[in-house]
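Researcher: Quick test of sequence recovery. Tokens follow.
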């Protein structure tokens, strides 16, 4: 499953060297992420819990961990990748600040990838292949439709109403992308030529979109469940990806191609679940173009929510 490769992916995309790269090429991204988190810390009501939580923490590449520690009695980092969280904690030069941090290793989707893998394994894919592309994608759609999505996920080491600030740190799109990519990886192994058919399979496309929406709702409900009265949630999420071929044209729409990552109803879901205190929109780069491959980046939305 894609989620099993998370530690390897994080080595490539997180940590001290990655933060230095971002400071050079996308400093605004780091500034915006930090600004929203600090704003939430300052707006948290005085009687509210002084514990803070980062979901999808990884190495805290974009999270102002020092500021979180200075403004909190305890900072909990939650992620499946324990090694990255340890690296993020150990970057702090103060032993006192490091002692404030508690690491929780967990799948913050509540096991959606595992649930889907079990459904996929029960299908007779060879039989579906013998019946053609539609039968294959209908079977894949059925797995997506039947996949349990815990709403909200029950994470044993994270108690409801326990946190004054909860940060969802650029993790939302991973929660639904990994299980969906698992299905496509399986189809790639079985019949690579069928992947060209996926855009024409309406039931499959609808099932995939519905799974995205169910996972988004569950994640928003998780944030709400974890917040103490008077607490604030910070949602940082990629909205669209883009590629560009010429250095210096990342912000030039004529030289780049975009791809939506979250359903269009996402802002509505946010406003249905929370009162939005602040929102911001920006872009960041993850790779510059080279001779062999285009550069990549993302359009981001950030919310402070009560």
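Model:
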């Amino acid at each position: 499953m894609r989620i099993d490769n998370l530690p390897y992916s994080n080595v490539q995309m997180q940590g001290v060297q990655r933060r230095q790269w971002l400071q050079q090429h996308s400093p605004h991204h780091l500034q915006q992420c930090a600004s929203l988190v600090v704003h939430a810390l300052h707006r948290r009501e005085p009687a509210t819990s002084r514990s803070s939580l980062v979901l999808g923490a990884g190495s805290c590449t974009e999270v102002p961990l020092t500021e979180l520690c200075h403004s909190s009695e305890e900072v909990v980092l939650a992620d499946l990748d324990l090694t990255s969280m340890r690296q993020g904690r150990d970057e702090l030069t103060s032993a006192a600040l490091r002692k404030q941090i508690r690491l929780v290793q967990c799948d913050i989707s509540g096991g959606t990838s595992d649930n889907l893998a079990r459904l996929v394994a029960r299908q007779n894919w060879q039989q579906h292949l013998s019946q053609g592309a539609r039968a294959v994608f209908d079977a894949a759609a059925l797995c997506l439709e039947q996949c349990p999505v815990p709403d909200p996920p029950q994470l044993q080491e994270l108690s409801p109403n326990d946190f004054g600030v909860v940060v969802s740190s650029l993790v939302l799109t991973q929660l639904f992308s990994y299980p969906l990519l698992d299905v496509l990886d399986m189809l790639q192994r079985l019949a690579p030529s069928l992947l060209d058919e996926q855009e024409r399979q309406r039931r499959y496309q609808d099932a995939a979109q519905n799974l995205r929406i169910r996972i988004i709702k569950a994640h928003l409900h998780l944030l709400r469940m974890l917040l103490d009265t008077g607490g604030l949630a910070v949602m940082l999420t990629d909205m669209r990806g883009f590629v560009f071929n010429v250095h210096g044209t990342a912000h030039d729409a004529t030289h780049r191609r975009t791809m939506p990552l979250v359903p269009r109803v996402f802002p509505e879901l946010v406003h249905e679940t929370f009162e939005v205190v602040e929102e911001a929109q920006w872009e960041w780069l993850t790779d510059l173009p080279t001779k062999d491959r285009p550069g990549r980046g993302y359009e981001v939305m950030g919310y402070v929510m009560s």
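The longest strand covers residues 227-244.
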